[in-house]
Amino acid sequence: MANRANTANTADTASTGADRAGAEPRRGGPERPAASHRSRRERPSSSRRRFRYGPYLLILPSLAVLCVVLVWPIIQMVWISLHSYTLRHLNSGSPEWNSFAHYVSILSDGYFWRVFANTIAVTAIMVVLTMVLGTLVGLLLHKLPRWFSTIVAVGLMLAWATPVLTASFVYRWMFWTERGLVNYLLQVLPDWLVGSGWDDYNWFIDAASLFTILILIVVWQSFPFVAVSVLAGLKSIPHEMYEAARVDGAGPWRSFWSVTFPMLRPLFALILILQIIWDFRVFTQLFVLANGFQNRDVFLLSYYSYQQGFAATPANYGMGSAIAVIMTVLVLVITAYHIRMMIRQGELR
After folding, report:
1. What pLDDT is recorded for position 11?
2. Which residues have C-beta within 8 Å of that of residue 66, sequence separation ≥ 6?
3. Are the C-beta atoms of 242 and 143 separated by less than 8 Å?
4. What is the number of domains present in the chain?
5. What is the CATH number of the domain that holds 201?
6. What is the pTM of this model?
């Protein structure tokens, strides 16, 4: 009887241990059915996977519009630059393939490199003056009272929003040879101060004087954008950083290079890229000031491209497109270089 009782107790203990083992699996060997059930439960459903592509489907119409408006014209421009495309081919519709003949002709032409040098020099002067003047005005607006700063900023944006064609005609009238305001003011000033002969001086023949007016127009219309952008960036800098710099003995110049410039470096880089792109392709202002294509000393790349494509005799669309392709490549190279530098410095992520 004692043996039977011990056997029964042993069986009950074994069954109880089995029940516990079923209820609480051992840590060393997790139960596989539970793991497979958990993996099925955590697996994303097909509807959730489809929803991942929802944002891409939403921006697809915008991408399609950009391709039609931007990418397709660039492809057409490159295609035309590789063909002999003139007015005669507009009717026949079968331009001749000439490979890279236009590019070889352009790059071996000394006049192209003179126009290229003028474009680089004028663009550099416009960009530097715009950035410096816009930054100084932005710093000044930041020091003014809020109500006065708002009034001045609105006035500056009115200059920036003025149509380019309107501003170009206004400046052309100001520097007009016979009845221009600038010539009148220079004529009434003492000769020992400004010289004489300003009553009939033509500002639009000499390349230096015409480029001076061109730079003046572009800077006048461009620096308000830089000033307002810098002003917005300055308002985001904590005032405590300037207080700490002042405690350390830093003056205005040192505070700008130690606090303002490092904090606004991404903003300055973005504005610089935009100004290079905008100023490099200046056309309307030069078209109004030059008033024709007779003076080839005042050509810039954009003006030269238009002259070859539409104003030459005969019009050579292939040559004009080749110059435009070169301009596009230059702008892309400059932009890519600045973006790469920003990424290296950790300003873009």
Report:
1. 46
2. none
3. no
4. 1
5. 1.10.3720.10
6. 0.79
